[in-house]
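User: My collaborator and I are trying to settle a disagreement about how two of our proteins should look. Neither of us wants to argue from intuition anymore, so we agreed to look at predicted structures for both before our next call. Could you fold the first one, then the second, and keep them clearly separated?

Assistant: That sounds like a sensible way to settle it. I'll keep them separate. The first protein:
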Amino acid sequence: ALVQHSRALAARARAEASVADLQRLTQSMLFEIYEQVRRLPGSLEVSGKIVESATAVLDRLATTAGDDPRLLADLAAGYEQLGLLFGAHPAIGRSLRKPHAAVDFLERAVAIRDRIAAGPEALFADRLEAAKGFGALAQAQLRAGDLAGSELSAEEGIRRLTELEPQ
């Protein structure tokens, strides 16, 4: 039993290290490499590949995130970054045949931020990030032509900010 327990602990440590490596790689691709590549002339194809790879990693991590607030916060930040990238560079969305990607990614980020904010150990900052996420989503929906969705998201963000005001 002790040997099996020891092996299980070692396997868990390896799995956690792998997840941490994937997180670092994704964050690097989204926040560092992409920003440098996108400025180069003719970089649309490479930018698209970076975004596709980062999306695949984030989606994989999302299926195994559980309730770890740190991992969930990193996932939300990654999805937010993707949403902002697609919003700022609609050509990438068109080239990947994902014209509404900005909204889709920001909806994922909002859902994750909501999970964190609803958790028993949620901090003021977690609830604030969840409220702010609705603002980014509202802007993306407006750019996508979804006025009704944009209004609902903006109202929800304002409602949540108002709830936080006394704090």
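The second protein, kept apart from the first:
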Amino acid sequence: MSIEGKVADPEQAAALIELYHEKGWTDGLPVVPPCRSSVDAMLQAAGLAPTDPIGEIPTRNVRITADKVAINAVMAGCLPSYMPVLVSAVKGLCNPDFNYHGLATSTGGASVAVIVNGPVARILGINAEDNAFGPGFRPNLTIGRTLRLLMMNAVNTRPGKLDRSTLGSPAKIAFCFAENEAVSPWEPLHVERGFSPGQSATTLFACESIVQTYNQLSSRPEPLLMGMADAMANMGSMNIIGQQQMGVVFGGEHTEVLRNSGWTKKAVKDFLFAHAKRSVADLKRVGRLPGETADGDEQTFRHPVRNPEDIFVVCAGGRAGSFSAILTGWGSIKATRSVTTPIVVP
């Protein structure tokens, strides 16, 4: 793909948009045709030259340079100020622990969830409140969309070709939100992973699906978390077999239940782990584990994660509404790990 010249009138812009569709350079939605000045503005915002390397995908023999990120960021509709966030996210995408090739080409249909922490989230207006996973907020949608366009245009991960998702997910278009650090009773995700509160960072997670949970009656943590643990141990999920990481996102009302009860993040993780489980007998009966049921299978349990630390916990969403969510993981714990990468603002 290449940068077209400056567009003088709307008809030329419309023609370029159609050209990008014909070339297969879009995600199915219209894109903003990039020009030299818009791409340069992206690069300048991150203090990068066009050929500066951002990362590599060795399994695809692809080297991602700053100009590729900038071009796709313009196409996605980003502002130049978003570029440092994108650079951080792309570095996470290229991190070997994240294992780009596995999740991007799987039939499972995982999305790349981007969680933003630190001051940059507030500065850029990355939504952490009402409709945190949904539409209406430019940075959320365009940052997430840039990664998908980059995956398609720079790594050739296109539906029906390298992208072999059986069903896919709308979250594969864009899935980006900020942690609501202002209402959380706990240290933010990036601080838990070793960064200072004043440092901004992105966390990338291979998210198989979003399972929304609802509980409007519980005023104590135990019954609230029991329902969430049951959702985590869904016998049809990939996690119950692969035991990959899982995310738990607490909405405002549920966050207040936990705050008022004084529960620590560790206590939440320990409780969820202890109660999110299925017996080996049940998993054999539904064909998730091979073989016939045997002695001891009714008393032997499998958890959707290996240990409590494989659950990450964040707060996001509106203050009203008794909703939270489980972010189930793709693949197996050997296939991918979530990665947290600092955001460097020049």
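Some points you might bring to the call about the second protein. The longest strand covers residues 201-214. DSSP finds 13 helices and eleven strands in the chain.
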